[in-house]
# Entry
Amino acid sequence: MTDHEGWRTGVGGTPVAVDVSRDRPTRTTWVVLLGGPVTWIAHFMVVYLVAEAGCNTDGEGLRAFKPPVPAAVTLVATAVAALSCLWLAAWAYRRLVEAREGVAADNPGVVAGGHEEHERGGTLALVSLLLALFSFVAVLFVGAPALVFDC
Amino acid sequence: MSVDEPQTPGPKVEEPLTHDELNKLFADPKGLWGQLTGVQNDKLGKRLMLTGFFFLLLGGSVDSVLMRLQLAIPDNDFLSAELYNELFTNHGTVVMFLVILPIFEGFAIMTLPLLLGTREMPFPRLGAFSYWAVLFGGLLYYSSTLWKLVPNAGWFAYTPLSGPEYSPDLALDFWVLGLGVAEVGAIAAAIEIIIGILKMRAPGMTLSRIPLFAWALLVFAFMIMFAFTPLIIASLLLELDRGFGTQFFNPDLGGSSLLWQHLFWIFGHPEVYIQFVPAAGVISMIVPVFTRQRIVGYTWMVGALVAIGFLSFGLWAHHMFAVGLPPLVLSFFAAASMLIAIPAGVQFVGWLATIWAGRPVFKTPFLFAIGFLVIFVIGGITGVMVAAVPFDLQAHDSLFVVGHMHYVLIGGVAFPIFAGVYYWFPKFTGKLLDERLGKLNFWLLFVGVNVTFFPMHISGLLGMPRRIYTYGEDTGWGIYNLISTLGVFIIVPGIAAFIWNVVRTLRRGELAGNNPWGGDTLEWAVSSPPAEHGWSTLPIVRSRHPMWDQDDLHCGEEHLEKFVRGLAAWPLRWRAAVIVGTADARPQEVFRVAGPSIWPLVAACGLVVIFIAELVKWRWVIGLGLLGLIIGLVGWNWPEDPPMTEEEEDAFEQEHGVPVNAGGSVVVATWAMGLLILFVAIAFGSLLLSYFYLRLENPVWPPPGIADPPLLAAIVAATLLALSGRGVYAALRRVRKGDQSGFVASLVATLLLAGAGVAVQWWDVAGFEFGGTQHAYGSIFYTLTGFLSVVAGAGMMMLAMAVYWAVRGTYTRRRHATVANIARYWAAAVVVWAIGFGTLYVGPRLV
# Structure
């Protein structure tokens, strides 16, 4: 039987399945993990679509996209996305440090990167950090041509 | 870095007394009926793989031999130009849609339950539907040969060549509609794979312990969803142009032929990585086992797979460098195309470092892995070359690109497929493929591939275009083409050696034992071939390499040990499987996996009838197909009486702390609904992109003579829909409180509000004076309206079924997950509706 809100089984207090999506730590793990690549693709689509609108087309209603708007939008979007990636990298790094410190506190002398660290989410934190840093580089690499071309 | 030696012998694996009962419980029925209704994952996986190989032998390989014979010498007239066009179209189409994809989906469905330590895939009936759809789609496509209507516009079917003006017969319709069915099947399997990996693993197999092959398949399946859905939309638009006279790709009437290229390559380029990513996963399984060395850089490998999955969606326009895109746009795509070499390179470093640190054993699977490394790296480097715009403008549409592509696809995909077959064949047949024949197979292929495809780089640089059926002697391309053709005759015996090896081994092969390679992952713990249910006592995973590191596969935390042993003995009347937490892999739910059913086949038949009816333009038959599809889906999902009472479920939960849902999982159903909503969102996004692209291509929007659509009725309709969205959640609250009458009343009110909203919208649209065939504006307006109506119509059907079941008292305070899922779908449908009609009605007023 479920309790009055329908979120927990009456037997053992175990979350019933409809409540599983509310697993916040898991969601946070995914947000940090995928945040960098999602930022990259969002940045890519924004700069591409604005360039497509401003450089390849003409007509009433599209004048707002005319040069130098595509290059300017690209540079601004690149700056914002790059900073977002750095922020995500910092977040992932904090999670990695927390995982390592947690292991070190409970198991003095344990080498970093070992089994205990994986247990506490260290592996995924490291993957997140790598992805965020790669996304940072990728965002800059994609956006940099706007320094040369205005369209 | 510490290098731990794998331990031998392997860990202890329990086989309880219930093994035979469980085996019988998970087996499909015998005979023809069992073949038609079967859902067992080993069977479906093998079928998908065999179907892929069948299509390869039927078309992919014969075509290539004929084409190479034609090009062997200058001015050859062995084939006509028309037949040559048909052959290269068929070759590309079959390999890209009907061979590699079903083979990897087959690998996934067959290996994942054993690899992840679970008994089945989450939706066995969805797996069966996927198989039937792939088979029927492939056969529908191939049936074009019977009518001498073989598609001939290339595997990319560029408009306007593929449009009604230049391809007026039905050949291209076979391409669009046959592949459409197969694409639906591919997406269905992707949903199955995603949920299987994220939710159905052994207790303890956290995300950090998932084998790299499973990570690769997870990325692969998400990529299928994001890539194939735009292709389905593109195919829909092309078929509307061809069969209904819309103007999406007609530049004279507001359309754009480049829109097809964008939509196609949004699918087409990720498709290459859809094929490469699982292949990389296979290599990541094989290299550690045959070097007796843990993979170096597991974490980096996972990051690389995820990065490739994302980056591959930012490369599509590098296939369009020659169409006249602005320099800024070109530079975006060139940058992204070069960037993807970084994660690919990370994987290479990982594999090479693993080999360097290990002690290689040169068995056939490992030889193919080495072949992969050598050949793919050449294809990868030439890929970076063509990512540079100036070089691509020189090499574009030349044989250089054909050489590059085959190095990528044969080295990067075909070799890993062979490696995977040699590696897992003993597990699923109980017999080892012959090593001598395997080595012969490898060397013939390795030499043959290089002899065939390397000279193409040279002839391409000398200026030889691709897709020409002959060339003059004075071009100087003859010697390179002759060498390429000779290479094919080294490849053919290589393939023959493989086929002979399989046939011979099945008849009198050496028995394999459970773990012939000394593998580190879970599948090697069970018998070869495995029991129908795979695992009697689920493993408890405490390492990334459980077969190397654990001495007992069922030893772990006390409550987990009690849980897995409890599940080995109970229940024995229904197929129980376990859901775990996505990240922590703690058991969350025991649920009943669906059993054999004829309904997936009925649904697939309904689907293919719809497409056949459109192909032959018997549109009244579309209704019959739709009816078959709906009957199939309803029968498939018809609620069955749970095989035990709520009290019995509670008793297990009290004992083990894990909820039981004998009526069917609510967790995987919720995930499936989430992925269905994602599918709708991607399709909707593709249509919105099409809308805005067409808007950009037209200086005046709407075109002269058409006024902006009036807002009032659309606002009324959206308001009614929004109210219905609240209504379904009110129904959900009431059922959770046990208020049955209020629950039914709320559901009925939801349905009525939804129906009223849709009716108002349609009444408004019916009054417009512009049609869907005079201009691309009308085409996209009515297509988007139709899409939104289908999304809403599907939701209303779900609501109507929910009302029916609610009146019959199917839903209770505890068992009402279906209603929760319908509420989620309906909420998403309302949001999609609001954005869609907001775009259609408000968009023209803004830009």
Remarks:
- Residues 24-147 of chain A form one domain.
- Chain A touches chain B through 68 residues (CB under 8 Å).
- The CA atoms of residues 68 and 150 of chain A lie 6 Å apart.
- Confidence is low (pLDDT under 50) at residues 1-8, 10-21 of chain A.
